[in-house]
Amino acid sequence: FAVLALVIVLGLDLAARAQDTLDIKIGYLRRAQHQETISLVQMPPPDNGVAGAQMAAKDNDTTGRFLNQRYSLVDLHLKAGDDPAMAVAELARQGIALIVVDLPADDLLKAAEAGKADRILFFNAAATDDRLRQKDCRANIVHTAPSRAMLADGLAQYLVWKKWVRWFLVVGSHERDKLFAAALTRAANRFGAKIVQQREFKDTGGARRTDSGVVQIQQQMPVFTQEAPSYDVLVVADESEVFANNLPYRTWDPRPVAGSAGLVPTSWDASNSLWGGIQMQDRFIAQFKRLMTALDMQAWTAVRMIGEAASRQNSADPKTILDFLKGPELALGAFKGQKLTLRDWDLQLRQPILLTD
């Protein structure tokens, strides 16, 4: 009789706990990116970004099992021409109020506007535009992607520390190249470097992986960089992936290259093995059979921030999550040697910038 009573009591307790399980559904909103890179080695994988979010959801579930929380990720892949606002409405219909976003700045702002009525909290895992943290800052967007200013500052601090203070700046002809160049110019002024000359490399199209293209590069890059004033390092702004990776070892003068090629500032790199990073890399490789990218890490960080807040507050309410993230208790471990915190004025995640070649 005593054993039977114990079984009944345990059964009732488990049933009650099951009813109290907190289901935390997270959306992942992305659009297909078809930008071709110069190197086949650098072509982004089809699951770039979302793989990091999936791993973080699994990590959250490990802790969530002890707290009666269950995490799931809904991946919504936009096609060309799809309206981000409609995608947000679809996720809202599924009861999702926490969305990680891998979209360009304008699409991100459309999504944020569409999610206001449903009090949706967005996590920007991809867009580096400084304006999203300034004039286009939104109260419902947390930024796990570093801004261009952060990336440029991280690079500038190292170059100035090396006393490579005379920069030859080469800029691509596309708008985002110019935005990165503006961030680099600001960083140079801020940390005491001098831009001795700036040149624009125009994108004229053409094949970049043919034999004739390689021959042209071998002839073009030395001539393009010839007769520059004396400089310590060539700094390149080419977010459009047109020419930057053709500059190292091909400049007229033997000088290091940094920026969009050579020594590159980033939030994460597969070579990082410090501060427990090798454990993170090994787990990712085991699960996805490839190396972890910066976008993967930024998406992982976003989902882990949600998990950290939800576990502390036992809530999936967007306002409760955001209030915790902005508060002093957030100290996210992200394999970068220090705890990460959030700026409460522009919702940018503070984080070290890695420099990698």
Summarize the structure.
With 357 residues, this protein is an alpha/beta fold. It has helices spanning 2-19, 50-67, 84-93, 105-114, 148-161, 175-191, 211-224, 277-288, 294-313, 318-326; strands spanning 22-31, 69-78, 98-102, 121-124, 141-143, 166-172, 194-201, 233-237, 257-259, 264-266, 354-356.
The overall average pLDDT, rounded, is 89
Strand order within the widest sheet? 2-1-3-4-5
Which consecutive residue ranges, at least 5 long each, have pLDDT under 50? 3-18
Secondary structural class: alpha/beta
Fraction in beta strands: 15-25%
Give the SSE order as H and E letters: HEHEHEHEEHEHEHEEEHHHE
Q: Determine Rg (CA atoms, Å).
A: 23 Å
Portion in helices: 25-40%
Distance between the termini: 70 Å
Largest sheet: 5 strands, parallel
Please state the overall shape, judged from the principal axes of the Cα atoms: elongated
Descriptive notes:
With 357 residues, the chain is of the alpha/beta class. 40% of the residues lie in helices and 17% in strands. It is built from 10 helices and 11 strands. The strands form 3 sheets. The chain has a 5-stranded parallel β-sheet with strand order 2-1-3-4-5, sandwiched between helices. It has a 4-stranded parallel β-sheet with strand order 7-6-8-9, with helices on one face. Helix 2 (50-67) runs parallel beside helix 9 and helix 5 crosses helix 6 (175-191). The protein is elongated and about 70 Å long.
